[in-house]
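A reminder before we start the practical. When you read a complex entry, don't treat the lines as separate problems. The point of joint prediction is that each chain is placed relative to the others, so the output describes one connected object in space. Small molecules and nucleic acid strands, if listed, are placed in the same frame. In the example below there are three entries. Take a minute to note the order of the lines before looking further.
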Amino acid sequence: MVQLSSNFLLVSFFMFLAATIFFTVSITGKKFENRQGQLKNKAGLLGYISSVVAVVAAITYFILRWIAAGHAPVSNMFEYTTFLGIAMALAFVIIYPIYKNNYIGLITMPIVMLIIVYASMFPTEVQPLIPALQSIWLEIHVITVALGQGILAIGFVGGLLYLLRVIDFKKVTKKVIGVEFILFTIFCVVGYILFSISFGAMNYEATFDYINERGNEANMVYNKPPLVGPNEGVLTSDTGFNPLVSTPAIIVSNDLNTVIWSILGGLLLYGLLLLLFRKPIGGAIQPLLKNVNPRSVDELSYRAIAIGFPVFTLGGLIFAMIWAQIAWTRFWGWDPKEVWALITFLFYAAYLHLRLSKGWHGERSAWLCVIGFALIMFNLIFVNLVIAGLHSYAL
Amino acid sequence: MEKVKCECGHVNPYGTYLCESCGKPLIEEDDSLVNMRYEGVARRSQTYKKTIVDKIWNFFSSVKVGIWIIVILLLASALGTIFPQEMYIPPGENPTIFYEQEYGTLGKLYYQLGFHNLYSSWWYMLLIAALGVSLVICSLDRVVPLHRALKTQRVTRHTKFLEKQRFFATSEEAIENAEEVMQKAEKALREKKYKIYNENGNLLAEKGRFSRWGPYVNHIGIIIFLIGAMLRFFPEMYIDEYIWVRDGQETVIKGTDGEYFLRNDQFIIELYDEEDERFREALERTGSPVVQTYQTSATLLRRVDNGAVGLGTELEEVKQHDIRVNDPLTFDGFSLYQVDYKLNELSEFTFTLEAVQDEVEEDLSEIEFTVNLYEPEMVYEFDNGFRIEIMQYFPNYRMNDGVPETINRIPDNPRIIFEVFTPEMDPETDTGEISLIGVQVNEPLNEQINGENQYRIRMIGVDMNNVTALTVRRDRTLPILAVGGAIFMIGLIQGSYWYHRRLWIQNRNGVLWVAGHANKNWHGLEKDFDYVASKSQIPVPVDQLDKDMSDETESRND
Amino acid sequence: MKRNRLIIRSMILLVMVAAIGYTFYNHFSEERGIVDRDDEAPNFILEDINGNQIELEQLRGQGVYLNFWQTYCVWCREKMQYLRDHYEEYKEKGVEIVAVNVDEGRGSVERHQERFNINYGLYLDRGSLVTNAYGVTSLPTVFLIDENGVVIEKQVGGKTENQVLASLDKLVPSQ
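Here is the predicted structure of the whole assembly.
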């Protein structure tokens, strides 16, 4: 059953890929509009159909895995992150018919794929639920949060599209650097995935003896070649080599090593594209987007946030409080994850006030959408993996 | 502070942007479009600046200030997650050392600045209070005039008002069948569930006005929630206690003023079956067992009131419940939660007495006694005349400056000083053999015999108990918080998922003037216009913002 | 009109400031115990190590020095030795010392009495019933109860001999 559900996820992944291709065709194919006037619409429609099929397959994965495990597959990093990707795709599938904007599909689909592949870098087997998670509120709380974040993510897509469309890439300004940084971050994720898959396929493993932060001897396993080594580390495996630098004991050096590889991957990809286009990547993308109506995209992103914000609040704060009262004896305890949910809430609240009362439309609003999504990702990845709290069993 | 009279005859308060009645812009702005925020009403706060009260009021009435409060609150909250708060550092760690030891100089600074208890610091609480004040004043200052403006709005609007709407069009010239077009448009709008107001052949179609109140409703919800949170600090509203109960024992439930007691019938831990097909892979990878259940089978007891506490307390059973994580026992506003446990706490030692050398003639075989480590008997007498006394009992033994003492009364490291009297001895006058006994400890203490005893007390049995820890909680603020949360959610949905839309269609001597406004979702308004135009040939308004957009070709949606 | 507005604004601000102020006061001031100054002392019945029962109400007319303690509490030990040295003297003046042991076995208390030659009643509160009813959370805690059964002071923590004497003096019934 678990195998079957994984197959559905795989099908879903390839349908997302198909949707990406169709949406690309729907936009680049426009050049031939005069000769094949219908092509554009058809490709857009095909893209939408592919994304619907992908979402249906993904939901089938979700239900099958739920049945197999006996609990909703939202209980660890792989499961939650995957579901976040699905939720984002679902939000797209719902919003697309309203605005019929193929550009949104063009950006959403690859991001969904990236999120799902990123999720599969975590252990994917079905895990038993610890007592604290055994509650119907796991399903209610987590699914609502993911849906909310998925919808908010569409707001991010709208904002990114807006920025790519309106910013002047001819001169290198702060704004250009900002957009390039967003793209670079995405490349880093790609880099992380590529390196993880390739070294994983090689079963790469280098081990070290080292002195940990408490002054005790310990050992550490690297799954990627050690560019930075642990504190007073001594290589004990055949594979691997002596690293260039050693880190202080307080830093978890194999994680830092992974981060460095990801950044290197990002730099490599970014550099290659830079060489290829000989201008900022955003500037290279911009011509594709010349038919995007900025006002329409701006409204779409605002709409997505106006819809997603209540859903996120319901799931991330209200349901969270109800469950916390039942499981942890208090509805609020300033656990890092709780605080970051509150921060996300406050951030979007500020966004709505700025937009409604201070007239922050267009570009400023778009930047805020991007930052909002960064906060969601920060809460998912950084708070879960680095700042340990009560939620840390989510790994 | 003078009132402004509009050419339509309506008298507007000072500071009004758009005449409340006909909508004519009273204050000329350079913007090509009118600012429809709050319907262009005068916000009182910005017009009276006399006394100190007014100044404070105006400060909190500003949305800009409100946003700053939100942003500062956001940053402050983030600051508190850099290092763990004091309540999340490992138990038993001393915060004065912990932060520096774990996080170096930054950690020390963090501690010195009080960030280890950031969320209960005076300035953080003050920020939340400021947010509450800002919510109250901002809402009050806006909702009243807005309500009035929407109530007194007229159907016939000034041409300037219409022209400067984002969606606007005219037929330019008089058309013949203007009235017929108007009627068709009205019918189409009714189909779209608009409320129609007519005046002198002009038309106002409106729907979703109630969504304008959404923000104020949700602000009321937050204010109620904050009031609830405030009540937390008032006496009697909130109880947070902690009890340990041993298997088979009863204890008074703290916080209930001695009224309720809990008996722990049994505490158990269940692990996931490693053979379980579903989880085998995951269990193999982690390599350690995973707990499936923590459960205390508990019986709730209540004291029968007889006027005094202490001796002679009678208890009656109230109910039984298996307390698990996520499944507390609730009664009388209290909840008992499974939060901790201790397995295998020592409860009883069983001893026997034996001779060190084999040359004693007494029969020691029947000497066997059990010492209860919570409440030990002090004297043990046997038929053959032997008598063993406990001289000292240390449940949790330690040496402190050469003096033995106990750290507390939990038998984590019990040591007993025994004195053994043979049948010939008189316990009142003689001194028996003395020894100190604990887990893997058996030291003779009589100095005069040079540390050599004739008899040795030997431990032959150990009994252990499980102990469960429960949190006792009563939170009387919960209903208020629930009401606040519900109202907040209703307001949020009301304001987010419905839209206020208005269409003005005016017939000025056969020339049709069409304008529209939406508080959000202009896309939906546009569709409604398209629908009306398809039924009635009204001029289709263009989005005047699109005119301002850059030079490139315009196309609405691809 | 303008005056009305000023009054309304002042009232609203005042209510909010008062509510916030009271919250802060409650949060940052010492919490009042379950039983504290000016409360009537809850009645209880306890037994000492020799099996003698005592009921608080029977002590009306005398000042009561109600001391909660445990054997391994160092501050308690010192205080109990001061009390031992002055027990007889104050007994004549109408002050009774009631030392309530918090949830320890009879044996430990007996040994303690022998070791320190305690001459006043050591009462056993097995199950912490009385301790909880009095809201005692740290030791030693002392309640000074006057001849009418009203708490005149709650003291937490170790005390010097002079402080103990001053407390005892407060309890001498005024006839």
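Discuss with your neighbour: The first strand of chain B starts at residue 4 and ends at 5. What might explain this?
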